[in-house]
Design a protein that fits this description.
With 388 residues, the protein is an alpha+beta fold. It is built from six helices and 23 strands. It is globular and about 60 Å long. The protein starts with a helix and ends with a strand.
Length: 388
C-alpha cells in the first residue's frame, strides 16, 4: 500500500512539473483539429463565392420581446430574428433564422393633434446559424414622414369636424323640433351643426395619438446602412431536417399566407400532392402543422376541409389544399402525419425547404399580404385619450 501511495505522489509531482509541456501538446493538437473541422464546415456550408450586401438592403425580421413606447427606454437591448432568406445574385447570403442584436435608439410618446408615438431601432451585428458574427449598421423606425403624418392628421381632423357637425344638427332637430327648423328656415339646424362642428374641432385639437407596440410575431423591415461582404450559402446547407417514410411522398407545391376569420395574416394554406405507396393509411385527423417549439396546429375548419375527412389509403394519389391557423406565421413549420395507434411521427416535411421552391409569384403575394399587416400592426388598440 505504501508503494502505491509513493508511486502516486511521484507521478503527481512529475505531472505538475511537466504541465506546460503536456498543455502545449494538447493545445497544439486541439487547435489543429479545430482548424480542420472549421475548414470542413466551410466546405459543407458555403459555395466559396462572395456577395456584397448593399446599402439600403431591407431585411425582414421579427422581435424576440415586446417593445412598447409607453415603457421601453432608449438604450434597451433586444434580439430579433430574420424571417426570410436574403438573396444576392449568386444565392442566399443571410439565411432565415439569423439573429440580430438591436437597441432602442429613440422613443417618443403620443402628442396632441393625434400625433402617434414612435420607436426607432438600431442594429449593430448579426449572428448566423453557423455561429458567425457579422457587423452591420441597420435601422428601423415607426415614424411617419412629416408630410404623410400631416396629411393623416388632417384627414382625421376633418372626420372629427364632420362628425361633430352631424351630431350637432341632429341634436338641434331633437331639442327644438322639425317645426322650429321649418319656421327658422333651417337656421336652427345650421346653428346646431356649427356648434357640433366646433366641438368636433376642439376634440381634434386636444386628442392624443396612440402608443406604439411591436410584439413577437410582428414583422419589421430593417434598412441596412452599410455594405458588407458575405459568403454564399449552399442550398443543401440550409435545408431543415425532415422525417421521411418509405413509399410515402408529400410534395408542397404552394404556400399561401392568408387572413384568418379575424382579419389577421395568421393562416397558412398548403397545396399538396400526396402519393401513398406505403403500407400506411393516413387521415386528415392524423395531420398537424408543427412549429420549432413543437407546438401543434390542427387543420382549420375555416379552410378547405376535404382532406380532413378523407382517408388516404395505400395506392392513393391526390391533390388537395389544407389550411392551418397559427399563432405566429413567421416561425419555422413542418407538416406532420402521426400514427394514430401510438402517436409517433410517420413523416415530417419542412415548409422552409418547400418555400424555396414555390413560384416567385407566390412569394411576392405573401410579401404583399405581410406588408399590409405591417402598416397597421404597430399602433396600440386603445380608446382615444383626452387630456385637459
Amino acid at each position: 500500500m505504501k508503494k502505491v501511495i509513493t508511486l502516486f505522489l511521484i507521478f503527481t509531482v512529475f505531472l505538475f512539473t511537466n504541465a506546460p509541456l503536456f498543455a502545449q501538446d494538447v493545445l497544439h493538437g486541439g487547435v489543429s483539429e479545430n482548424n480542420q473541422i472549421y475548414k470542413q464546415i466551410e466546405t459543407d456550408v458555403f459555395t466559396g463565392q462572395i456577395e456584397t450586401l448593399n446599402r439600403k438592403e431591407v431585411i425582414n425580421m421579427t422581435v424576440s420581446q415586446v417593445l412598447d413606447s409607453s415603457f421601453s427606454l432608449e438604450g434597451d437591448e433586444f434580439f430579433a430574428e430574420v424571417t426570410t432568406d436574403v438573396y444576392g445574385d449568386k444565392g442566399v447570403v443571410i439565411p432565415r433564422g439569423t439573429m440580430a442584436h438591436g437597441m432602442i435608439k429613440d422613443t417618443t410618446g403620443p402628442k396632441r393633434l393625434g400625433r402617434e408615438a414612435s420607436l426607432t431601432l438600431s442594429f449593430d451585428y448579426l449572428v448566423t446559424p453557423d455561429g458567425r458574427e457579422i457587423p452591420i449598421e441597420g435601422e428601423m423606425t415607426t415614424k411617419l414622414h412629416p408630410v404623410a403624418q400631416a396629411g393623416k392628421i388632417a384627414v382625421q381632423d376633418v372626420g372629427y369636424t364632420l362628425a361633430g357637425g352631424a351630431i350637432g344638427g341632429l341634436a338641434a332637430l331633437n331639442w327644438l323640433g322639425i317645426e322650429a327648423a321649418i319656421a327658422s328656415e333651417g337656421y336652427t339646424l345650421a346653428g346646431g351643426a356649427a356648434i357640433g362642428g366646433a366641438i368636433g374641432l376642439t376634440m381634434a385639437l386636444i386628442r392624443k395619438g396612440k402608443e406604439v407596440l411591436i410584439s413577437p410575431g410582428d414583422e419589421i423591415k430593417v434598412k441596412i446602412n452599410t455594405s458588407v461582404d458575405l459568403p454564399v450559402y449552399k442550398e443543401s446547407a440550409l435545408k431543415q431536417e425532415e422525417v421521411l417514410y418509405e413509399g410515402l411522398t408529400i410534395n408542397i407545391n404552394d404556400i399561401k399566407h392568408e387572413k384568418d376569420p379575424f382579419g389577421e395574416i395568421n393562416t397558412i394554406t398548403l397545396s399538396l400532392l400526396i402519393s401513398n405507396m406505403s403500407d400506411k393509411t393516413l387521415s386528415g385527423f392524423d395531420m398537424a402543422l408543427v412549429n420549432d417549439y413543437n407546438v401543434k396546429f390542427s387543420p382549420s375548419i375555416f379552410g378547405d376541409t376535404k382532406l380532413m375527412f378523407k382517408q388516404i389509403k395505400p395506392g392513393d394519389k391526390l391533390i388537395a389544399n389544407v389550411s392551418f391557423a397559427v399563432d405566429n406565421i413567421n416561425r419555422k413549420f413542418w407538416l406532420a402525419f402521426y400514427d394514430r395507434r401510438n402517436g409517433s411521427v410517420i413523416t415530417k416535411i419542412s415548409l422552409d425547404n418547400a418555400y424555396r421552391s414555390i413560384p416567385q409569384k407566390s412569394k411576392k403575394r405573401n410579401e404583399k399580404a405581410r406588408n399590409k399587416r405591417i402598416k397597421k400592426s404597430y399602433l396600440k388598440d386603445s380608446d382615444m385619450e383626452l387630456d385637459f
